[in-house]
Design goal:
single chain, alpha/beta, five-stranded parallel sheet
């Protein structure tokens, strides 16, 4: 059976492709999902792709991913990146590798975007590649998983 990777997206990422194209590009979240599915397929992985504007939901999904023994988790925590100890705690409880993704380069923007609680639980962090960061995260996870076998 194919290994599963969860790809979780935080608040306002449902707006992708509708506003702020200079920062986030023109692709929609549906297109990001397609990119993740195609990339995962190439590596023999299955993707569960979700977005929510609610912190508790993200925590429930991280706990679900852990209970389901997923092979890995990609997360763009969006606005919760800099605020959520609760998401950090949920991620710290996971054994599977976590990759944090940001579409924009958070280090080249406002200072407040630079500190991430989530990075403490992440095996890798990708930012500034636009939506290609998601594909890079899945490819990186596949390499990490392959290296284990
Ligand atoms: O660059 C990223 O991926 C971010 O995680 C996006 C977050 C931001 O708070 C982080 O600092 C960096 C914002 C997500 C909101 O996305 C929108 C997309 C299009 C239009 C409006 C918001």
């Amino acid at each position: 059976m194919a290994k599963t990777v969860y790809v979780l997206n935080g608040p306002n990422l449902n707006l992708l492709g509708t506003r702020e194209p200079k920062i986030y590009g023109r692709a929609t979240l549906a297109e990001v999902e397609k990119l993740c599915q195609t990339t995962a397929q190439r590596h023999g992985l299955t993707v569960v792709f979700r977005q929510t504007n609610h912190e508790g939901k993200i925590i429930d999904w991280i706990n679900e991913a852990r209970a389901e023994n997923v092979a890995g988790l990609v997360i763009n925590p969006a606005g919760f990146t800099t605020t959520s100890v609760a998401i950090l705690d949920a991620l710290l409880a996971m054994e599977a590798p976590v990759v944090e993704v940001h579409i924009s380069n958070i280090h080249a923007r406002e200072e407040f975007r630079r500190h991430s609680y989530v990075s403490k639980a992440a095996r890798a962090v990708i930012c500034g590649f636009g939506i290609d960061g998601y594909a890079l995260a899945i490819t990186g996870l596949a390499a990490m998983l392959g290296a284990k076998e």
